């Protein structure tokens, strides 16, 4: 995919969405191993049930990584100036999540043309689990 150009981007434009396969226990176990985050809330159903929940849920930083991938599938990582997010809700096992973004603002800062993109992960019903923004420099 060619790098988008500042002059070709309009406020309201959507980034190409990133659809993820349903979250499964293997993915959560692999992420725990890769990230070093072995919190039992993400992998141990007996622990989770004792805490009063029905099942394990995804790591918040896994969702944040998906937002990073959403942006860097559209522009090179070197164009990214800022990425931040707020965690809004847990993402249960078996959930189907889509990462999406929309251009919210165009501006110039530090001698660069930049855009601000509102980003979020949503489930099949459109409920957001993470929302945030990315700032991207474009030619």
Question: Could you describe the 3D structure shown?
Answer:
The chain has helices at residues 25-35, 45-50, 60-72; strands at 18-19, 80-87, 98-109, 112-122, 128-138. The protein is of the alpha+beta class and 139 residues long. Strands 1-3-4-5-2 form a 5-stranded antiparallel β-sheet, with helices on one face. Strand 3 (98-109) and strand 4 form a beta hairpin. The radius of gyration is 17 Å and the shape is elongated. The two termini are 15 Å apart. 21% of the residues are buried.
List descriptors:
5 strands, 139 residues, 32% strand, alpha+beta, 3 helices, elongated, single chain, 5-stranded antiparallel beta sheet
Describe what is shown at a glance.
The protein is an alpha+beta fold and 139 residues long. Helices cover 22% and strands 32% of the residues. It has helices at residues 25-35, 45-50, 60-72, and strands at residues 18-19, 80-87, 98-109, 112-122, 128-138.
What's the topology here?
Elements: E1 18-19, H1 25-35, H2 45-50, H3 60-72, E2 80-87, E3 98-109, E4 112-122, E5 128-138
Antiparallel strand pairs: 1-3, 2-5, 3-4, 4-5
């Amino acid at each position: 995919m060619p790098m988008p150009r500042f002059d070709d981007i309009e406020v309201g434009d959507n980034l190409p969405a990133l659809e993820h396969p349903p979250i499964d226990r293997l993915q959560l176990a692999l992420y725990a191993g890769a990230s070093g985050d072995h919190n039992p809330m993400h992998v141990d159903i007996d622990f989770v049930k004792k805490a009063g929940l029905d099942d394990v849920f995804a790591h918040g930083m896994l969702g944040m990584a998906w937002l990073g991938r959403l942006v860097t599938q559209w522009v090179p990582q070197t164009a990214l100036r800022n990425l931040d997010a707020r965690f809004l809700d847990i993402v249960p096992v078996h959930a189907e999540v889509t990462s999406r973004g929309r251009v919210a603002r165009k501006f110039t800062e530090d001698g660069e043309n930049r855009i601000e993109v509102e980003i979020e992960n949503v489930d099949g019903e459109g409920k957001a689990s993470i929302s945030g923004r990315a700032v991207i420099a474009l030619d």
